[in-house]
Design a protein that fits this description.
single chain; 318 residues; alpha/beta; eight-stranded mixed beta sheet; 9 helices; 16 strands; asparaginase activity
Length: 318
C-alpha cells in the first residue's frame, strides 16, 4: 500500500536563481526523498500555480483519477503552488468520486531557503492521505499542521507559514497522525472535465468604491462565457451594474454574484443597485462560495454545456 504524490510545481519545488527569482525546478521524486513512508511519484506539471490553465487542470484531474484507480494506492497527494491552490482543490473536489483522500499541499518558502516549510507540509500531507480516519472526506488542503476541506478554503497570508484559512477544519496533524475534528459536507460529484473545458472563459469582475460598469461591459462584449461579479459586502455593486447584468443574461451569459468579503454568504438584501436589483436582473447568488471557487464551478458547468439549466445546476452546489 502506498501514497501517490503528484507534482505540479510551486514554491515547494522551487529554488532561487540569480536574476530569475524562485522558479519550480524540483520534481516529485526529489521531494519524496525526504520521506520515510511508502510513496510513488509522478511529475504532472512543473510550474508556478499562477501560470496554470484550464488545460493543465484537466490533465491534473486525469492524473488524480488514474492514481486513485490503483487498488494499492490508499490516497493521493498533490504538491501545488499556494497562489491558486484553493481553485484547483475545489475543482478536484467537485469531480471526486473515491473514498480515498486527495490532499493538496505546498510551501511558503522555497526548497533552498534557510527554513523551508515544504518538508513538514509534505510529510503531514502524506500521513493525511494514508489515514483511514480521513476516508470519505473528499479533497483536502494540508498546510501548517491543519487539514481543511477544499470547499471554502482560501489563502489568507502572502508570507506567513499559516497560509490558509476557511473551509471546514477537518483535522490537525500531530506527530504524523490525523486528529479528526469535523467532517466536511459533500455534494454529488460532477462529470469529469472534457476538452471543451479548456477554452471556457469565465471572468471575475471586481466591485469597489466608485467602480463603473465599464469593465463588466467590456467582458460581455469581448465574448466571455460566464461572469463572476465580486461584489462588495453581502453582494452589492451599483446602479450602473444592474443594466449590464441584465444585458449579459439576455445574451445568454450567466452572471454569478459573489463577494469580495472573506467570510459569509451572499444574500440579496439591498436595493438601489444592491443585491436585490442584481438578482432581479438575473444574477445568481454564490452562497458561501468566494469568487475564485465560484469561477471553477461555473467553468466546469459551462464546459458541460448545461444551457438554460445552468442556474439550477449552480445553485445545487451553493
Amino acid at each position: 500500500m502506498y501514497v501517490h504524490i503528484l507534482g505540479t510545481g510551486g514554491t515547494i519545488s522551487s529554488r532561487t536563481r540569480e536574476r530569475a527569482g524562485a522558479t519550480a525546478t524540483d520534481g516529485a521524486a526529489s521531494l519524496a526523498g525526504m520521506l520515510t513512508a511508502e510513496v510513488r511519484t509522478t511529475d504532472v506539471l512543473t510550474t508556478g500555480s499562477y501560470l496554470l490553465t484550464f488545460t493543465d487542470l484537466r490533465i491534473l484531474v486525469k492524473a488524480v483519477q488514474d492514481a486513485l484507480a490503483d487498488d494499492d494506492c490508499v490516497g493521493v497527494v498533490v504538491t501545488h503552488g499556494t497562489d491558486t491552490m484553493e481553485e484547483t482543490a475545489f475543482l478536484l473536489d467537485l469531480v471526486h468520486t473515491s473514498a480515498k483522500p486527495v490532499v493538496l499541499t505546498g510551501a511558503q518558502r522555497a526548497a533552498d531557503s534557510s527554513h523551508p516549510d515544504g518538508p513538514d507540509n509534505l510529510a503531514d500531507a502524506v500521513a493525511a492521505a494514508a489515514s483511514p480516519a480521513l476516508r470519505e472526506c473528499g479533497v483536502l488542503v494540508c498546510f501548517a499542521g491543519q487539514v481543511r476541506s477544499a470547499r471554502g478554503v482560501r489563502k489568507t497570508q502572502t508570507w506567513e507559514l499559516t497560509a490558509f484559512d476557511g473551509g471546514t477544519l477537518v483535522a490537525e496533524m500531530r506527530d504524523g497522525e490525523a486528529h479528526v475534528l469535523a467532517r466536511p459536507r459533500h455534494h454529488p460529484p460532477l462529470p469529469l472535465p472534457t476538452e471543451s473545458f479548456d477554452n471556457v472563459r469565465v471572468e471575475i469582475v471586481p466591485c469597489f468604491l466608485g467602480a463603473t460598469p465599464r469593465v463588466l461591459a467590456h467582458v460581455i462584449d469581448d465574448g466571455a462565457d460566464g461572469i463572476v461579479l465580486a461584489g462588495t459586502g453581502i453582494g452589492n455593486a451599483g446602479v450602473g451594474f444592474v443594466d449590464e447584468v441584465a444585458r449579459a443574461v439576455a445574451a445568454g451569459i450567466p452572471v454569478v454574484l459573489a463577494s469580495r468579503v472573506a467570510w459569509g454568504p451572499v444574500k440579496p438584501i439591498y436595493g438601489n443597485g444592491g443585491g436585490v436589483d442584481l438578482v432581479g436582473a438575473g444574477a445568481i447568488p454564490s452562497g458561501d462560495l468566494n469568487a475564485p471557487q465560484s469561477r471553477m464551478l461555473m467553468a466546469l458547468l459551462l464546459g458541460r454545456g448545461v444551457g438554460d439549466k445552468f442556474a439550477d445546476n449552480f445553485v445545487a452546489f451553493t
